[in-house]
Structure of ADP-ribosylation factor-like protein 11:
Amino acid sequence: MGNGFSEQPGFLPSVPFFQSFHMAILGLDSAGKTTTLYRLRFNEFVNTVPTRGFNAEKVKLSLGGHRTAATFHFWDVGGQEKLRPLWKSYTRGADGIVFVVDSVDGERLEEAKTELHRIAKTMENLGVPVLVVANKQDLRNSLTLAEMERGLALKELGPGTPWHLQPACAITGDGLREGMEKIHDMILKRRKAQIN
């Protein structure tokens, strides 16, 4: 579970290149980024420690009712303030950004908004689809999706940046598959538009 690549055998030969996606998982520290990554990777809860650098994992997911398989190369980057300037190095050339937000931490919602807008509006990331994972929605005192959408000013990301706000619980995995299907669709739509 460290700072290295791991993959399950036999994935790459059966997956066409165009179904392989470079993804960055970002968000403030303690939002649940690594828990999200390992829930997607192993389909089980993995107890994690704060990420001091990055975690890289290759994850194959069946999407669209198991009709499509896609391989995602995830870069999960630490969210401590001193690490945030490095985020743009991991989003360079990314097909999508997964931005994890702690739905219970209303006090830091403004800080999350600032960081989300900063990374989404950099020149290299303009138009890159963003999946905002509203993590910890299972907790009683979590903000509603409407409160999160307003607090994160998602409509201000601009018309060229497709986004989706997904309620989720990284510990149980609820909502993560649906969120990945949404960002997969947004990425494919963007690729199709770039070809035409």
Observations:
- Residues 18-195 form a domain with the Rossmann fold fold (CATH 3.40.50.300).
- The two ends are 41 Å apart (CA to CA).
